[in-house]
Prior knowledge:
Elements: H1 9-23, H2 35-46, H3 54-59, E1 61-62, E2 72-83, E3 89-99, E4 104-105, H4 107-118, E5 121-122, H5 124-139, E6 143-152, H6 153-156, E7 167-174, H7 175-178, H8 180-195
Parallel strand pairs: 2-5
Antiparallel strand pairs: 1-4, 2-3, 3-6, 6-7
Amino acid sequence: MTDPIRPSREDAEAAVRTLLQWAGDDPTREGLLDTPKRVVKAYGDWFAGYESNPREYLERTFQEVAGYDELIVLRDIEFESHCEHHMAPIIGRAHVGYLPAGKVVGISKLARVVESFARRFQVQEKMTAQIADSIYDVLQPLGVGVVIEASHECMTTRGVHKRGVSMVTSKMLGTFREDARTRSEFLDFIKDGRAR
Ligand SMILES: [Zn+2]
């Protein structure tokens, strides 16, 4: 990493020690000694999205699909993200559908796109739009739909303390936006997943 605005690993670990102290604990006690190191390492996983370019996942497409021109839906893509307001986890599922215009993408790539945007500091509405927009721009299908349902730990573990509440956001583009039939077909596809 040669990003000039990125602090050193030592600085990041010192910041974790500061937060431990701010919480009221003693970062020099045995149980917490290696915690800054672990947290900084965990950040590498939780925020790996900054190291990836979701558009690249969508650039390798297939055209030999025997004329398939119906909806393609990947539902229940589990993700973990972090809210950018509290740095608290957002745990949820994304459902992604598109209507291909000749080009399709490997199905695991859609999950990778979700993962790439999830592993950043996020706002659910923004993440929903980013996933839909990148698929629409790069794959250029006739339409895209993205529905995300997630629970926000900044809401379940603090603040209003509402458990079991999930937030649902959606972004529809192209035929998903313009054609009620396409949209409802997509929503029917993902309904079974959402009923759980
Ligand atoms: Zn929050």
